[in-house]
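Training component of the fellowship. As part of building independent skills, the fellow (R.M.) carried out the full modelling exercise for a liganded target. The chosen ligand was zinc ion. The inputs are recorded below so that the supervisory panel can assess the work.
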Amino acid sequence: MEKLIITAAICGAEVTKENNPAVPYTIEELVREAKSAYDAGASVIHLHVRWDDGTPTQDSGRFQEAVDAIRKVCPDAIIQPSTGGAVGMTDEERLASTDIIPTPEFATLDCGTCNFGGDEVFVNTENTILHFAEVMQKRGIKPELEVFDKGMIDAALKVDKKGLLDHPLHFDFVLGVQMSATLRDLVFMAGSLPPGSTWTATGIGRNAFDIAAGAIILGGHVRVGFEDSIYLEKGVLAKSNGELVEKVVQLAKLLGRPVATPAEARQILSL
Ligand code: KMH
Ligand code: ZN
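Fellow's submitted model of the complex:
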């Protein structure tokens, strides 16, 4: 089995310091959290940024500042800007996170519209998905295809049919937002991909580590971090993203799956 790629989603756009005081907002806090995750074994940093007051932004200057600062302490990490941003942002606003130097090697591409709790809807129309795929392909950015349910795999494959995705494809299954975070559904999703694809799984909230264990066993890769879950175990807040990554590293060790370095992750992902 391939070595395990661990992605740390260190910040997100929704979680706040009220949820967990260690959630990073400032550049210094983002650097601290990225370094804790990288030191623990993460090879990919999935990045959202905030203004100092916690407001999410896709401002390219803020991304540039964050990436440059993270790069100083995690020199070979794969930094993956979010193009999802926060609910309600325009497409152009969202894509601005990739307008940095050097052009990112990897970025997310969300493959459908989904409910985000209450009245919140994360909108990704077919034209948005096509537009993001076209821009990323032109600029040589590998998309991580974010899928929140099975239909989004099919939506991604429609984009692929138009020639807008370079192979091999890489997916991230986000389980526990729209579809349930169960091993049954993880197995179904993993079995629904074209041959040669790679995939990562993310379990939201209390399912983070069940899904991580399932992904490790099934030959997928794992994403954890404050964007997805703030608890190390029931009732115990994680003090850092590094603690969440460390728990995945322990699971991988118990299950006999070595963890990939950033160089190995680049090879597995064909970056
Ligand atoms: N914050 C969500 C609205 C991504 O990073 O591409 C979108 C999101 C997905 O987090
Ligand atoms: Zn994200």
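The panel noted the following from the submitted structure. The chain is about 35% helix and 20% strand. The first strand starts at residue 6 and ends at 9.
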